[in-house]
Amino acid sequence: MAPLSQPPESGRPPQLVRPGLWLFAPSRDSQGGSSWLLEAGAWGGRGDLLVDCPGFTQANLDCLQRRTAEVGPGTIVLTSREGHGRCRRIQEALGWSVLVQEQEAYLLPGVRACTSFGSEHTLAPGVALLWTPGPTPGACVLHVHTGALDGLFCGRLLVPTGPSALAPLATARTFHWGRQLASVERLRRWLPAGSPAWIASGAGLGALRGDKLVMGGAALLAGLDLASLAPAGR
């Protein structure tokens, strides 16, 4: 790893996707994954929520430092080890707290103000995390269902497979495929009926062909044929 004093590259600023929700440019620090910023005013919290770490670039730091000056320090929510990126550098630059599932807290030595959780964790009424192991041991999702907001940040539990399409996908980096499918089923039972309205994936979004969010999230989840994806002999 390069010294902490090394200046970041310039990078591209995040893109506004809907009021209060921003998408950062793909980060090579997280294998081309996607990071999201949910503004405090959108979810009713005291600070913004940064869902996974974007690239350590000047454009991203400028944006996050402006938000810190406006509403105070936020929280970095890590949905899997694939989204950690340069968490320590970003945390040191911003002074934000970090929230991670306990199975992957050990991957963040030296990160200050780091809190871990087990099976579930509630940040505020209607804002909760669920442990969904499979993509990685400590993978989790963030559900935000408050006011007019009804979305799911699914990390890499579900990845884009085509326009308006998401599905669990086994890759060479998958921790446990059977557990991943079981986590999707648990997620379907955990979510309120008819929710979410949209899903934001933490994977690369190229397969969505220009879209950022996948609408009709509840119907998409209900329509997943998990039995056809189950390991042979199960």
Describe it for me?
- This protein is an alpha/beta fold.
- It has a single domain (15-229), classed as Metallo-beta-lactamase, Chain A, CATH 3.60.15.
- Helices cover 20% and strands 27% of the residues.
- The chain has 5 helices and 15 strands.
- The protein has a 7-stranded mixed sheet. Strands 8-9-10-11-14-15 form a 6-stranded mixed sheet, with helices on one face. Strands 12-13 form a two-stranded antiparallel ribbon.
- It is globular.
Short description:
This protein is α/β, with parallel strands linked by helices. Helix content is 20%, strand content 27%.
What's the CATH superfamily, by name? Ribonuclease Z/Hydroxyacylglutathione hydrolase-like
| SSE series | EEEHEHEHEEEEEEEEHEEH
Q: What's the main sheet like?
A: 7 strands, mixed
CATH class: Alpha Beta
Strand order of the largest sheet: 1-2-3-4-5-6-7
Q: Low-confidence spans: pLDDT under 50, at least 5 residues? A: none
Give the overall shape. Answer: globular
Give the overall pLDDT as a whole number: 94
Give Rg in angstroms: 17 Å
